[in-house]
Each structure stands twice: as structure tokens, then as C-alpha cells.
Design goal:
mainly beta; about 160 residues; globular; 9-stranded mixed beta sheet; L,D-transpeptidase catalytic domain-like; 3-stranded antiparallel beta sheet; about 5% helix
């Protein structure tokens, strides 16, 4: 994934993608809420999808359906920081069940998760791009049709390199 050209290269093909609204940042300089995509090498952990909108993705990546009470903690002072949570949750969090389609498919990467370092950034996913072509809050986003094309080739543990 090249943040300079906003393309994801896979199997000899280039796919346009979107990155953070404020560009990219070296992993160690990333901060919670900076709206920058962190550079680095990550592993695909698992995927989530909206079963009310889509069938289970045909993929070697482990997928589970989203529930309306799924969330992701973004409170750097909370023990659940950068972790999957169930709502309601007392600390600051992101709701994963969204109406705008962005989280119809979520690919969870190993960004800041082993263990999470407070403030280094949370919920950095690969997900579906917004239809208005806007940048993300730090994630990588693909058009729905590009996501569908890639899913059959993905596997749990697969490496994803995000570079400038």
C-alpha cells in the first residue's frame, strides 16, 4: 500500500484507495485522533462484516458478523484501549455498526495491538470507502467493488505493508 500514490498493490494489480485526511505518519509518531495513516508492516488479524447487508465474505481471512452492540475502545487511558468491546461501554469508543456503509466490511490489522501503547492510535482498519471520496480518520479504505475483488485472496496473518 503506497500512501503517496494512494494505491494498494496486490497480485500485480493496483487498486485506488483512500488514506487519512491529513496524510500518513511514521508509526512511532502517530497519535490518537491525528487523522493520519500510520506507516509500517502489519498482519491481518480477522474481519467483520454486516450480515444484514452482505453474505459472509468468501475469504481465507476469518470473518464474523457485526452486531449492533460491537465497538472499539479509543480511550488511551482505558484498559480496553484499541480493543474490540461490547456496548454500552463507559470509556470513549467507536461504534462499529454504522449506517454509512464504511464498516460493512472491516479488516482488522495488527496496528498497535501487541500490546497497545496508550495514545499511539486505535481502530486503524482497512474498510469500505465513503462514496464521496473523502479521506479517512487514519484507516485505509477501498471502494466496495475493490474490496469484493480482494477478499477471496486474503488470509489470516497475511502481511500488509503501508509505505510512503
Amino acid at each position: 500500500m503506497n500512501t503517496s500514490t494512494q494505491t494498494l498493490k496486490f497480485n500485480g494489480q493496483n487498486y485506488p484507495c483512500r488514506i487519512g485526511r491529513k496524510g500518513a505518519v511514521a508509526y512511532e509518531h502517530g497519535r490518537e485522533g491525528d487523522e493520519k495513516t500510520p506507516l509500517g508492516e502489519y498482519r491481518l488479524r480477522f474481519g467483520l462484516y454486516r450480515a444484514d447487508r452482505l453474505p459472509k465474505p468468501n475469504s481465507g481471512l476469518t470473518f464474523r458478523p457485526l452486531r449492533q452492540d460491537d465497538g472499539w475502545c479509543d480511550d488511551a487511558d482505558d484498559a480496553g484501549y484499541n480493543r474490540f468491546i461490547r456496548l454500552p461501554y463507559q470509556a470513549s469508543h467507536e461504534k462499529l455498526w454504522r449506517e454509512d456503509g464504511a464498516y460493512d466490511v472491516i479488516l482488522v490489522m495488527s496496528h498497535n495491538d501487541s500490546p497497545p501503547k496508550a495514545g499511539l492510535g486505535s481502530a486503524v482498519f482497512i474498510h469500505v470507502a465513503q462514496y464521496d471520496d473523502r479521506g479517512t480518520l487514519g484507516c485505509v479504505a477501498l471502494a466496495p467493488e475493490e474490496m469484493v475483488r480482494l477478499l477471496p485472496y486474503l488470509k489470516t496473518g497475511m502481511s500488509v505493508t503501508v509505505q510512503a
